[in-house]
Amino acid sequence: MTEAAAAAETSESATTAETIAATAEAMEAFLATLSEEQQDAVLYAYDDETRTTSWSNFPVTFVERAGLNLADLTEEQQVAAMGVLEALLSDEAYATVVGIIGGDEYLAENSSSTESSLGQYYIAFFGDPADTAFAVQYGGHHLGLNAALDASAGTITFAPTHLGVQPAVYTNEEGEEVQPFDGIYTDAFAFFDSLTAEQQATLTSGEVSTCSPGDTCDFATGSGLQGSDLTEEQRVLLLDLLANWVGMADEQTTDAALAEIEATLDDTVVAWSGETTYDMTAGDGISFSVSGPDVYVALQAQDGSAGADVEGVTTSGWGHVHTIYRDPSNDYAGVVEQQAATGMAGGPGGA
Predict the structure, then answer these.
(1) What's the Rg (C-alpha) of the chain?
(2) How far apart are CA 302 and CA 61, in angstroms?
(3) What is the pLDDT of residues 5-41, one digit of tens each?
(4) Angle (nearest 5°) at CA 302 between 261 and 282
(5) Could you give the CA distance from residue 136 to residue 147 in angstroms, rounded to a whole number?
(6) How many CB atoms lie within 10 A of CB 271?
(7) Which one, of 152, 289, 296, lies nearest residue 218 by Cα?
(8) Do residues 128 and 134 make contact, with C-beta atoms less than 8 angstroms apart?
(9) How far apart are CA 317 and CA 285, in angstroms?
(10) Is 326 left (phi over 0), alpha (psi -120 to 50) or beta?
(11) What is the C-alpha to C-alpha distance for residues 350 and 310, in angstroms, rounded to an integer?
(12) In DSSP terms, which residues pair with 156 in a beta bridge?
């Protein structure tokens, strides 16, 4: 799978319309490599409720995913599948996704885990790419992308999406050090460090909330630091952090999504627990949540390796993180309503 991911050349579309068109074209190219039986397996109706229960932060052996397992595809088909992500995602987001996939494959090859599904990823399409609106779902244990694209409305939304990482740092087959969440951590601590001591005290006294990937959620705001108490610079830094989930496509799509969140940022609450400096050699990592009318993001360090231990590599705390992004006002672009999880469920802290 990593070779297939590397084979897809990244290119960044400039506008929402260009991203939608490029993604539809890549989807058609992928479908053309499949047999009729495989096409039937990967294509669902746009409003199929399976879309809400076929993604999770649990391994694929615990929660059944929709679509085709890339492990069952030929190399040509795998490259074409990754081409869909390449067309959809920005260069930075694509690199993050490839890094997450590589981490799972690193654990499959080097860890003590007996989980046979490590490194297995599924792709599914909801709606026909020839239609105006369609969705792409892609994921496995530490990844669950749900992208809804609507050409007539000129919109792309990634809510809901699960990004996770284990380990936080690993060495790939080329001997390069990979750190998929470095951008997220850097942005998180840039926001934290911009706060006054009083603001930090309010932030860390709040309660970090959780919401289950692939399950219903009440999106409780909870306690913490209110967006209305942030300076303009701090608001920008918080939006920069949220862009790691909200802004996974082109710049125009990102700007539109962040503008919507910014409009209700005064009513958004941020809570934080764990370490207060970005030093992965100390402590057990961080957890935070950002909850408001138009955004819900939670990141939680996992207390445990889930059996995926590698000597000399951190696979717990800093080295094992689950996150969730939801839009309380527009999950799944408002097409389907989240159904209760059909398999195991848990918040970002799920095992």
Answers:
(1) 19
(2) 20
(3) 554 444 456 899 999 999 999 999 999 999 999 999 9
(4) 100
(5) 5
(6) 23
(7) 296
(8) yes
(9) 5
(10) beta
(11) 20
(12) 149
